[in-house]
User: What shape does this take?
Amino acid sequence: MIREIRLNAFDMACVGHIQHGLWTHPRDRSSDYLKLDHWVNLARLLERGLFDGLFLADVLGVYDVYDGSPAASLRNAVQVPLLDPLALVPAMAHATTHLGFGVTCNLAYETPFLFARRMATLDHLTEGRIGWNIVTGYLDSAARAMGLDAQMAHDDRYDLADEYMRLVYALWEGGWRDDAVIRDRAAGIYTDPTRVRAVRHDGPQYRLDAVPLWEPSPQRTPVLYQAGSSDRGRIFAARHAECVFVNGSTRANVRRIVDDLRARAAPRPIQVFVGATVVTGRTEREAQEKLADYRRHASVEGALAHAAASLGIDFARFGMDEPVDATGSQAIRSNIEAIAASLGAGWTKRQLIDRFVLGSRQTPIMGAAEQVADTLMAWVAEADVDGFNLSRTVLPECLEDFIALVVPVLQERGVYKHAYAPGSYRQKLFGAGDRLPAGHPAAAERWDPA
Assistant: This one.
């Protein structure tokens, strides 16, 4: 059976996201991020390309690990300045019909009740096209912004997240019965109060006694993304996530992670997306010239500032050929594991910089459309991934090129859709109903009329 490849555009409400320095390219429009038309046009472009979703990353702190200062991040626009991605979704949803929106929100600094209402609101306004990338944070600068001295330890953040998830599931799934809203104009009754109940919780981290203020939304619980590939992260993902985002190290290493995730989540299906960057052209020569052109604008300093924060390592302290010590980091462990898997034990700053082809650790997939399609299909076959989170290079031409050149090749090979399936974001991804399946822990919070 041929597996249909899933595609998300991977972006952020900022100037520089993954490929640092490319905002300086004369054709790049990333600095238009403050204009609503920028986002509406992006959403319409992705829907024309039949993308499954727009995956919006987010952070709540500045990258200040490199040389102990945010200066390099500020100079190079390394995910700063940055807007709130949730505010962008309603306009993009209004301009489209099918495109899904996966938005990163850090649960460590969001009260469960307010966050649950915000996501339910978006599920209503998008008519069931919202997803949540569950993160627990990794920046001490974000903790300080919230009035704390430092973030919690890595595994403790996942313990907090497990309790948080139980609470938001109860708020989304259990406060209102499916038939609570009757809208009886003649009797003057909008909601039957006997079909609404308070959600009560008294746990180690959270206390709550509240009636959810929102009526049931199309999906109830948003589509659940998670990006943790560490051992503790995979335990969490296998329990909660429907879609998992993994770093593209080697295909063999990704296959090991994917096999583990699927085994842990079984029999519940999950979809796995791997991060990728594509530079393509009508010919291989054209793609090579485009890559060389882009590369002249890439920023090594910006890439180091980003890597230092996401790995929890101040690279300014290391010589070019000195083995980098990553022990004790409380940042994204899966990123550290991916680097070690691809560069080997005792990797150095020079080796890391050699990877910065376009101002990031992500080695681009480069070639004519047929070559790009070959590579994407090889990833699916060898790493058992379901799709890709495609990060931008020069915007919007990178997506325009992919849609015009690569998508038709994938369609001709029978691995990419020719039209959207009907229904909600979850229904499009999994071919089932709007709601999470019975085997998911959220289902235990539902109000059974019986």
Remarks:
- Residues 6-444 form a domain with the TIM Barrel fold (CATH 3.20.20.30).
- Residues 65 and 133 are 24 Å apart (CA to CA).
- The first strand starts at residue 6 and ends at 12.
- The two ends are 40 Å apart (CA to CA).
